[in-house]
Amino acid sequence: MQGFIGRRLISGTRQLSNLRPSSQRCCFSQVAQREEANNGVHIPKLPPFDYSPPPYTGPSTEEILAQRKEYLSPSMFYFYNKPLNIVDGKMQYLFDENGRRYLDGFGGIATVSCGHCHPDVVEAIVNQTKKIQHSTILYLNHAIGDFAQALASKLPANLKVVFFTNSGTEANELAMLIARLYTGCHDIISLRNAYHGNASGTMGATAQASWKFNVIQSGVHHAMNPDPYRGVFGSDGEKYAKDVQDLIDFGTSGHVAGFISEAIQGVGGIVELAPGFLPAVYNSVKKAGGLFIADEVQSGFARTGSNFWGFEGHGVVPDIVTMAKGIGNGTPLGAVVTTPEVAEVLTRRNYFNTFGGNPVCTAAGLAVLKVIEKEGLQENAFVVGSYLKERLNALKDKYELIGDVRGKGLMLGVELVTDRQLKTPAKAETIHVMDKMKDLGVLIGKGGSYGNVFRITPPLCFTKEDADFLVDAMDYTMSKV
Description:
This protein is α/β, with parallel strands linked by helices. Helices cover 38% and strands 16% of the residues. A hairpin with a 4-residue loop joins strand 2 (93-96) and strand 3.
């Protein structure tokens, strides 16, 4: 472990002071004391923290909602019955318009890796912005090359050619295009319950009805999902892999462009792939002439703790790796990394991305890599994530409402069911518990095909005290259901 911050994270040393304004703290404290006195129930309290945001002087929640309704797409949705107006953030905490502090257990959808407004990342962005914000890759600038080199050093084998994009969707679109050009085949195999984006090609690879519009989506076959909890073969990865072989044999010409998969399905509900599945599929796809695309948009950048990349936990080396989210700690940045041989296919025509490799974004990306290394955030994700998962499993033993706890590091899922035998999704209960946990000061996400899975993907600077508070808040809330 390097650096004081990293040691502090793993040791779980308490930070200094609670942030809520004194009048709000007193009110909360009085309510807590009354409830404890009356019912003997302990109400969880946020760990202390040594940051106070400046007073908020912007528009109110009601004004923002009205503005959003009039000028933004009606497709945009939000969490909670009373949406939060988040105006400030620092490390693993967020603050609303009233200065109330919340523990961020969602990390901007597994995006905030180092922590909100991490000083090193902010400094890199500001310094680069002062020099030049944009020049296009048609001119030389060292920021893009420095980051590409550092990124390549984190990948195995000959994965060292980097194409920068603006998002994970864009990265997956490009990866599928490259695979089709390289192999001369059109067919891509994806998994049921997968999410790879919402553009034309990636929507085809995505396999959840709620994220797919009724438009032409050709050339993608969806294999049986190797879900140890809900899948028909349980944890037998090789049986699921046979379905991929069957798709190749009966659904294609026998040759495919590639196979794309997340190491842990994020939007799908933090679903770990059954052991032995990816190595067996890798062999089948290779024999069919295809490339293996690892979608690391959510599971990459040390989030799983045991490895820097999710695919490393399966003992396979992909031909193409896609990434975004945690790559920039919140800056719009994505990337596709592949081998020199595969990358050559894009020279057959012109491939260009105006903002891909933007100097400000790549400077941020390089800073993120340095922070992860300097502060030991991968080790912290493993230590704190393992502790958090252990506590969540103890909660599962206490409440029949919890059907499954899964995931690795700080990418964890908690599935709620009304019947453990039938695995009936507890949709209403999920929304209720989320809302009440927010009232206590904990923000988590939800996902899964049925919307009944808590997605816990906090910034990697999460501490054991934070983990305790999150679980205690969930415990307290479930005790009231």
